[in-house]
Request: fold
Amino acid sequence: MIKFCNLYSGSSGNSTFIETAQTKILIDAGVSAQKISKALKSIGTDIDEINAILITHEHIDHTKGLTTISKKFNTPIFATQKTWKQLDGLNIPSYCQKTFLPNENFSIGDMTVYPFSIPHDAVDPCGFSVFADNKKVSVATDIGHVEESLITTLIGSDILLIESNYDNDTLLCGSYPYFLKRRILGDLGHLSNDATSKLVRRLYENGVNKFILGHLSKENNFPELAYQAVYNELSSSNVKTPFTLSIAKRDSIDDVVELV
Ligand SMILES: [Zn+2]
Ligand SMILES: [Zn+2]
Reply:
């Protein structure tokens, strides 16, 4: 059995909880330790029970809580060597600093973790697939554009948290300065609702049917728009197997999904 729960999602902070029979991890800790602790408590877990935190990349919305959590609870934190260099200023105790190699499996308790490289404007950004008990759960956010290898990697996921960052028109008409719009739209920025829809459809046609849309921009997206874009794309597919589609909440905790 794997339990999966999105604690926080979006540009103001990201953190996802995954639990197996023996292991409890977080992917990213992009809000305060206090907020993460509170969210975990609400699903019956103490923050000091967390066996490891996996870091996708160095941006603050993925790393904000790390210093406090590592100092208070000595939690092992896993990131690539290049990402650790970028996180130098956070003063994380060296005994908490664990490394992994992108695109190579590693183990945490009874979990096998596959970190896969993604295109984003960070030094060594990754998404993660976690395998345990014949299940696969994947988290992929902060993706500049969809490469064929990403689709191959995500096929087989029993549940996928995928970024659906912005609505094209909302971004273009919005108040963001030009350079920021260019960054988000660029090859190393974020995925639009349209790009996510097409990616999700490809995955659905290859057997994936549980999707959570996450990392929605507060300024440049609306949950309804993201949901509708993906829903329409899935509904127009020739594949007619049932699918589950939801939006990760920004500031409150999602329901725990149990995959048995
Ligand atoms: Zn980022
Ligand atoms: Zn981010």
In short: The chain has a mean pLDDT of 95.
